[in-house]
Amino acid sequence: VETVSSPTNIACIKYWGKADKKFNTPINSSVSVTLDQDDLRSITSVAASKSFIADRLWLNGTELQMDDLNKNPHANRFLTCMKEMRKLACDRIDPKTGEVTIKASEWDQYHVHVVSKNTFPTAAGLASSAAGYACLVFALANLFNVPIDEKGLSELSVIARQGSGSACRSLFGGFVKWQMGSSKNSRAIPVASRDSWPELETLILVANDAKKDTSSTDGMDQSVKTSPLLAFRAREVVDDRLARIEKAFKEKDFATFGDLAMADSNQFHATCLDTLPPIFYLNDTSRQIIRLVHAFNKFHGKVVAAYTFDAGPNAVIFVPKEHHKLLTAFMLHFFPVCTRPADFSNRPDLIQAASQVKSSQFDELIKAGAATGRVPKPGDVKMMYCTRIGDGPRILKDPTDCLINEQGYPKPDIEKKKDKSQTDSQAEEDSIAPVDKTVEEVKQLRLKVESLQQAIGTQNQLISRLLSFSDIGFTFIKVAMLGKALKFAW
Question: Residue 91, Cβ neighbours under 10 Å: how many?
Fold first, then answer.
């Protein structure tokens, strides 16, 4: 069993559109900032056994079906990552004795159970799939004893990309570039470490934590087919922005970095509007946040905060550390805490400190924000995350971090629904019996449903006959039959 964690990443120059849908290669290169996984991360545990009957995946407590794409669009991508990682599998070595416990040639005899969870909203435009697939590939690399130095991680990024394109960037910390290219050489490369700009922080405003209506995969597919602006952007705009923002990051030039990040975010969402039918990832709260950030910058006379939105309504605002507290206080005024501070933010201490900011200067700042038309209202922002640049995936050795029990199934606190085959008390060799029992229970349930449908049909017939009598002389028959119908229904 291996357990790892992986961060999410937020693109500053966006990836939108696939050159090859089968291999998840992009129509343009992109760059991103990896966020601190102490605040937002995916955690994945993997277990391998010859007794497992299939590769299985549980996400946030729910098992995803591998045989029905309608129920689980991730099935092909998950199985592709599994297949490609098995090709890289090496001998598994016992770290204490140095002995080979599983030979590389034996891995085909093993199936793998994967249990994963996110500590932040899933499919809401915060790159949860990027963190998830990076976590999956990194966990399998540890299970299969695949080298995970910088060169090895670059090779793993080629596989993670096939699960979720931007997942390749979550295999590195700091500032990361995803290079466009062929199925074999489109990969992530680290540009600058997290320590190269420690003063760069982020404030994340969750405007909607629900799953978005249009998935990123479906959205970019439509944009590639119908948006002339997307093709122009990839051909004429992106490469220049990539060079300029990389230089700005390395030189800690926040004004240039912020301008480019905001411009690219705006253009990305313009391509979504240019798509037919148009895609609306931003909502009214998103647009109000945009106006407030520009008011914040205008008040300071320079760019000291920069928003970016991925494929969703949730804002990621880059901000130098010296302005983080004031920006948080500014946003809290217009988007007040709507629940307990501990539920509203990952850093309730920072929220508390920001809520106490008071000065004549702050009053003037609030007037500048009010001029945008925003009226303070709790509930429009569901959560605020305060975070910073982070590192790449981590190996978790603490047993309490493991999501899998001794039998190879999700621990009870991870599962939403448990059956008898997935409890700590059952031996692995008995795992087939509950499956048979479950099949029989489903058959019995189907019979009960059919019986109930017949009973409802009989009831409806009785009521119809009752209503067909019009002669008052048959009133006693009506009453008798009504009583019978009601008794039958009860």
Answer: 15
